[in-house]
Amino acid sequence: MDIIEIGTPRLLLRAWRDSDRMPFHALNTDPRVMEFFPSVLSRDQSDAMAERCQHLIAEHGWGFWAVETRREQEFIGFIGLHPQPHALPFSPCVEIGWRLAHAHWGRGYAGEGALAALKTGFERLGFDEIVSFTALTNQRSRAVMERIGMRSIGTFDHPALAAGHPLRRHCLYRIMQSRPA
After folding, report:
1. Residues 122, 177: contact at Cβ < 8 Å?
2. Residue 129: beta bridge partners?
């Protein structure tokens, strides 16, 4: 399987490396980064997630790519596409998502990388639709979704979160491949 890498003016979306695990764990233990997730991740949970991301990229050639800055060649998180395996009300689907270290927020990296991932998903991988979702209160991610052209299409209760959990209610965004008439 050919592994897809994506370059933008400031970022490289690439396969994961063992050296990514320590900074990935650091961002997964930052309460600011994990504010809209049920909890921060232990080292084992973080490493297992990185391993799953790498396995899917090795299997499909794409996925949640590790992201590094071109100038510093510093790992800053992940951005990419993910075949959503959970039994969600809108499954099966391909999700676009991102998680960046707090020190790299506010620089436009999430949008820059996400636009490049969308382009790859539509033009190279041939997807007709890509979705994204987050807790209703996650205004920062919702703003990125809107900046990259996604539109809100409704809400749902995330089945992995118990009834009454404050993050259970999620919003769903979608973008469709535009095809010439």
Report:
1. yes
2. 176
Residue with tokens 């979702």: 133
Give tens-digit pLDDT for 9-46: 999 999 999 999 999 999 999 999 999 999 999 999 99
Q: What is the reported pTM?
A: 0.94
- Contact partners, residue 57, CB within 8 Å, separation at least 6: 3, 15, 16, 63, 64, 65
Residue type, 87: A
Q: How many CB atoms lie within 10 A of CB 39?
A: 10
How far apart (Å, rounded) are the C-alpha atoms in residues 155 and 133?
Answer: 9
CB atoms within 10 A of CB 102: 14
How far apart are the C-alpha atoms of 175 and 181, rounded to whole Å? Answer: 18
Cα–Cα distance for residue pair 80/66, rounded to 1 Å: 8
| Buried-exposed string 45-58: b where 16+ CB fall within 10 A, e elsewhere | ebbebbeebbebbe
Domains and CATH numbers, the chain: 6-176 (3.40.630.30)
CA-based nearest residue to 57, from 20, 92, 88, 100: 20
Backbone angles phi and psi of 5, in degrees to 5: -120, 145
Chain-centre distance for alpha carbon 99? 6
Whose tokens are 């600011």? That residue is: 32
